[in-house]
Amino acid sequence: MQLNKIPTTVVTGFLGSGKTTLLSNVLKQAAGKRIAVIVNEFGELDIDADLLRSCPLDCDDEQATTSVGENGIYELANGCICCTVEEEFLPVMKQLVERRDDIDHILIETSGLALPKPLVQAFNWPGIKEYCTVDAVITVIDGPAVAAGRFAHDAAQVQAQRLADESLDHDPSLQELLDDQLSAADLVVVSKNDLLDAGERERVQAVISAKVPRAVKTTYISHGEAELDTLMGLDAAAEERIHDVHNHHDHHHVHGEHHDHAHDHFDSFVITLGEVDSDKLQVALKNLLSEFNIFRAKGFAALPGKPMRQVLQAVGKRLDVYFDRPWGTDQPKTQLVFIGKGIEASVIQTALETALV
Ligand SMILES: Nc1nc2c(ncn2[C@@H]2O[C@H](COP(=O)(O)OP(=O)(O)OP(=O)(O)O)[C@@H](O)[C@H]2O)c(=O)[nH]1
């Protein structure tokens, strides 16, 4: 037992797999617990932190999780946590260690392109090891995407590209990323269960069973709804075994130096516009999703005469649109982050400008 160490849950998983949705549910359920949250985004906008922070429409402040400090959410934007462990992650962890008497649990959401291993290894560093332990690494898997063979398919594509282009020699495939995220898992969470039929669930299970030991449990969830007991208090002390976890990317890793990694081959940028017509924006966005290799797009739209902020979330070809909260004191603007391969900001900007009012 690690009675006097702060348990830390590391939530990993590919872009758009459902990590933020899960975290937001945990925070809603964990009323009264003092939880510090570290959110790492690959893109330059802190959209996840913003969504986690914003009070949902039915939010009852009295019930809200007791936050740590000002809002309890620490953002590590604009970089991948596994490559900035020393510069970004450790200073935040040291701040949390200083305030350990006020913290019951730490939750970390890694970027969708991050490898969990370097992060978990950091829990063996002096100054962290004495005070914190990794309660569990939770790997979130996008059920429909895995069922559709998206990761396997992309691996084949990358292989073909490799043959055509020497410069992509070290481009780790998405399948490798999935393998590496799964290899560190103490618990696998398959998200978007509501979108899976029985056959698809079987295909997902077959992929997982081939990659993780039988002792690692898998749970299927919809809309982030999972029992807290399933997610927290696993007491896995993952940092003690992390050296034994084999990763595709281990041979690239040089201690203290930036290593070759999936995100080196991804493009990411932010598009900012004024007020837009919601229907036109969605049409333009859907066209872009089918035309280009966009893995993830997310952000907010400002609609004329609407006090509410509209959230847009694209994962692969699927687009979710909803209102989350009034703009309040924020200046309404339309702003979306894009992550993909071979995509150009100017092309996307021009396409989205057709929605301007
Ligand atoms: N239908 C359905 N949609 C879901 C579920 N979980 C998440 N989503 C949607 O999937 C999209 C991505 O979810 P997020 O929770 O933002 O995913 P993420 O892993 O945090 O994404 P990144 O941080 O960008 O990597 C959003 O539009 C969610 O509403 C689910 O169980 N069912």
Automatic annotation (TrEMBL):
Superkingdom to which the source organism belongs: Bacteria
Protein species of origin: Neptuniibacter pectenicola
Name of protein: Cobalamin biosynthesis protein CobW
Family affiliation: Belongs to the SIMIBI class G3E GTPase family. ZNG1 subfamily.
Keyword Chaperone tagged: yes
Keywords, ordered alphabetically: Chaperone, Hydrolase, Nucleotide-binding
Name of the gene this protein is made from: cobW
Functional note: Zinc chaperone that directly transfers zinc cofactor to target proteins, thereby activating them. Zinc is transferred from the CXCC motif in the GTPase domain to the zinc binding site in target proteins in a process requiring GTP hydrolysis.
Listed transmembrane segments: none
CobW C-terminal domain mapped to chain residues: 266-356
InterPro entries xrefs: CobW, CobW-likC_sf, CobW-like_C, CobW/HypB/UreG_nucleotide-bd, P-loop_NTPase, Zinc-reg_GTPase_activator
Catalytic activity field: GTP + H2O = GDP + phosphate + H(+)
